[in-house]
Amino acid sequence: MANIKSAKKRVLTAERNRVRNVAFKTSIKTAVKKVLELAKADDKEALNSAMSRAYQLCDKAVSKGILHKNTAARKKSRLTKAVNKLQSK
After folding, report:
1. What gap in Å lies between CA 66 and CA 74, rounded to an integer?
2. pLDDT, the chain, mean
3. Which of 54, 56, 60, 61 is nearest to 39 (CA)?
4. Which overall architecture, per CATH, does domain 5-88 show?
5. Taking the domains of the chain in order of start, what are their residue ranges?
6. Of 12, 25, 29, 57, which has the maximum CB count within 10 A?
7. Closest alpha carbon to 75 in 37, 33, 45
C-alpha cells in the first residue's frame, strides 16, 4: 500500500475506475450474446435494434477510453460476420 496521501487517493480512484470499466465491458459482452441469440431467431427488427445497441456500446467505450478504437472495430466486425454466417444457414 502507498504511503503518500496522493498515492493513496490514486489507488482508490484507480479501483473505482477499474470496477466501472469491468461493468461496461460486461455490458458489451451481454449485448453481443443477445445479438447472436437473435440472429438464430427470425426477428429481423429485434436483431437490428440489438445490433445497433451493441455498436453503440462499443463506440461509447472508445469515447470513454475503456476500449481502443481498433478493439471496438474488431468486435463490431466479428459480430457482423457471425450474424451473417448464422443468417445464411
Report:
1. 15
2. 95
3. 54
4. Up-down Bundle (1.20)
5. 5-88
6. 57
7. 33
